[in-house]
Amino acid sequence: MKFKEIAKKTRGLGFHTGEYALFGSVPLAARGIRESQDIDMLVTHEVYQRLKGEGWKVEVFPNGIEMLRKGCFEVGEDWNYGTYNPDPSKLIKEADIIDGIPVVKLEEVLQWKKAFGRKKDLKDIELIEKFTKHKD
Questions:
Q1: Three-state DSSP state, 22
Q2: How buried is 64 (Cβ within 10 angstroms: 0-12 exposed, 13-18 middle, 19+ buried)?
Q3: pTM for this model (two decimals)
Q4: So what's the pLDDT on residue 136?
Q5: Which CATH architecture has domain 3-128?
Q6: Residue of 7, 36, 50, 88 with fewest CB within 10 Å of its CB?
């Protein structure tokens, strides 16, 4: 998915700045590095509970982390993994605004992908580092 489509779908949820920030591979799509397969979203506790009450599907991953899923959206209250344990409210507050949509800073995505270390993360790490090197 290109970021233009991601932004449109995200706007359709009606969330307000300060309630969420896009994470996962979406920050790469937002900067034209690569497209994203889904829309990963970090939300406040209040938004998470509201979505849960609205019937979004609860999914528990093998590491015990609970997320909500609906269509192309995957929503969590935090994005902790291994040694990467940032303050979710800070990630949301300090997100870059791209096309009117809050997107987690690329540096944070890089740290998260290094902590996660899956095969696809290693490819993304390489893409992010190449992007930031050329940007400087």
A1: strand
A2: exposed
A3: 0.91
A4: 60
A5: 2-Layer Sandwich (3.30)
A6: 50
